[in-house]
Please model this.
Amino acid sequence: MRTPKTGIKTVAVNRRARHDYIIEDTYEAGLVLQGTEVKSLRRGQCSLAQAYARPLGGELVLVDMHIPPYEAGNVFNHEPRRPRKLLLHRREINTIAAGCSQKGYTAVPLRVYFRNGYAKVEIGLARRKRKYDKRDKKADAQARREVRRELARRHRR
Model:
């Protein structure tokens, strides 16, 4: 799916992250990739299901993002779940690292996309939702659904 005005082609979206976490801040980061990883991403193959970002030696690293091997890659293929370095400004790395060190916070990838030919990942500084947060959200959705249904029923009369 490419949006012509912005030049963004979305590869993968982590919908589960918005369900399990409250996203407090988002950052755009570049990805350090090998050649066959780029080819697999361009084919739309990527999974963010168990992925997370963590600070490691003054850098931010994306762990457990799965990019399957490229079929025509032969001996030059990559390791599917290898840690991948994220490219951010020092100030952003420090902010995310400080956030991750707080109890209950983590950095989760929200989506992977290409912007003007460069692979990018949107990282969200997130706090895990409690069970009651999820119940509240479900109750709100149910209430909105009922209101819509009632308005539609009244409008038909």
